[in-house]
Write a structure and sequence with these properties.
With 422 residues, this protein is α+β, with helices and mostly antiparallel strands. Helix content is 29%, strand content 25%. It is built from 11 helices and 19 strands. It has helices at 76-97, 110-114, 125-137, 149-160, 163-169, 175-188, 210-219, 232-246, 352-361, 368-376, 400-403, and strands at residues 10-11, 22-26, 45-49, 64-70, 120-122, 194-200, 203-208, 252-256, 260-263, 270-278, 281-290, 296-301, 314-318, 321-325, 340-347, 383-389, 395-399, 406-408, 415-419. The strands form 4 sheets. The chain has a 9-stranded mixed beta sheet with strand order 3-4-8-9-12-15-16-17-19. Strands 1, 2, 10, 11 and 18 form a 5-stranded mixed beta sheet that branches. The chain has a 3-stranded antiparallel beta sheet with strand order 5-7-6. Strand 13 (314-318) and strand 14 (321-325) form a beta hairpin. Helix 1 packs across helix 8.
């Protein structure tokens, strides 16, 4: 439990749905407004599709919220049940495959690989393909690694501590933490110490050096070797949205607890709210209005929008500087940069995985110039960017593509600045 004297953010202008940094507000025409049923017969409208509970794969839907529009062309109850069954079955399957901690009787998961280091393991074609993709994305340039679990674990432990303990252990105050994180980073970024081989026909081999195993033993590291880590929910979301599109289930949107949203094919137009933090007070800086539906959006936020339960976030002050802590870190060092306050990537053509990869790659940047360099050297598609900085939260940096879609709150003194992308 946090100490009583720990200051929390004061939430202003609360919205209906809070997703990381962005609040998704459906502003469709009246045909997409939620309709309350006044009789036993369900009426057309927007419904939340809640996954079917499962005794083996528990909590598989906890990080996902699916809102679907039933237009009344068929019986609404039947349509909802059909959508719920298809969504639940696929979400449960993919969640189980990507589970790095638990094995199952019905699925071969990432945990099955973690339990057999330096051995050949046979897995299914879906997990094999997803691991291949994640392995290709793993690079210092993308700031992503499927082997970085111990780095993220350090920060998860931080979030669970009381204020005095976590501040004492925070790298800004503790050189031993800095050293430990750098040692771990050096191991997980060196293929001589940990690597994954794809042998064909569904066979993989996780190779772990004796030095790394001994280091983990000496430091008491018991986290999984292998995980999809910070892109895990994006992989699940991408797979689910592709599956639903194939089944022509395409009238709605799915959001995740960590800041991603995917719009299905026939989603309504929507408005996103831009938030910032000024003097530790959460402010609604403005809105982004898209006249044409997006395919996807991803937001990285280094502060909590949830005033009552700031899970996986904290802040601390030292020498007049406020340090914002979250799960977004530099895999080269395991440290958090404290440069970006938040960043949002929105697209009408890139998929959610590409959006999330670009966004996560910006985390280690320390200047707007570094962000420009990355953006201009990578294929962005029809991508729109909104960035907010720790040292000047009143400046909202945006790409030219999105400038005309933004309306700032005229009661607050926020400014738009253009990020050069060409």
């Amino acid at each position: 439990m946090a100490e009583e004297n720990e200051k929390t953010f004061r939430l202003k202008h609360p919205e209906l749905w809070i997703i990381a940094f962005v609040i998704l507000v459906v502003t469709a025409s009246a045909s997409f407004a939620f309709t309350c049923a006044n009789s036993n017969r369900e009426e057309k409208g927007l419904y939340e599709i809640v996954p079917i509970s499962d005794s083996e794969v528990k909590f598989y839907g906890a990080d996902f919220s699916f809102y679907y529009y039933c237009d009344g062309e068929m019986n609404v109850t039947i349509e909802k049940n059909n959508v719920r069954k298809a969504y639940s079955d696929k979400l449960k399957e993919i969640y189980a495959y990507l589970d790095e901690d638990n094995t199952y009787t019905s699925y071969i998961s990432v945990a099955s690989i973690n339990e057999h280091p330096n051995e050949i393991v046979s897995i299914g074609p879906t997990l094999y393909s997803m691991l291949e993709d994640a392995y290709k994305r793993s690079s210092l340039d993308n700031n992503y690694s499927i082997f970085a679990t111990p780095l993220y674990s350090f920060w998860y432990q931080q979030f669970a501590m009381i204020r005095s303990d976590r501040e004492a252990r925070d790298p800004v105050n503790n050189e031993e933490s800095v050293t430990y994180l750098k040692e771990v980073a050096d191991f997980i970024n060196n293929k001589e110490h940990i690597d994954l081989s794809f042998l064909g026909e569904g066979k993989v081999k996780l190779s772990v050096s004796e030095d790394y195993q001994n280091y983990r033993d000496n430091k008491g590291i018991d986290t999984p070797y292998l995980s999809f880590n910070i892109l895990k929910n994006s992989y699940i979301l991408q797979t689910i949205s592709d599956f639903l599109s194939e089944k022509e289930i395409n009238k709605g949107f799915i959001i995740t607890s960590d800041g991603s949203v995917v719009q299905l094919k026939n989603s309504p137009n929507q408005t996103y709210s831009i938030y910032s933090v000024k003097d530790l007070t959460l402010e609604r800086a403005g809105d982004i209005d898209f006249t044409n539906p997006l395919t996807s959006g991803n937001v990285i936020r280094h502060y909590s929008l949830n005033n009552t339960s700031p899970v996986n976030y904290y802040y601390m002050n030292k020498d007049g500087v406020t340090y914002f802590r979250s799960l977004y870190l530099d895999i080269k060092t395991g440290l958090e940069n404290n440069f970006l306050l938040s960043s949002g990537i929105y697209s009408k053509d890139l998929n959610i995985l590409d959006n999330a990869t670009i966004n996560n790659a910006l985390v280690p940047c320390n200047t707007i110039e570094e962000i420009n360099t990355y953006l201009t050297s990578h294929d962005k598609g029809n991508t729109m960017i909104v960035i907010n900085l720790v040292d000047n939260p009143k400046n909202i940096y945006v790409s030219n593509l999105i400038k005309e879609n933004i309306k700032l709150n005229d009661k607050l003194d926020y400014n738009l600045n253009i990020i050069k992308e060409d």
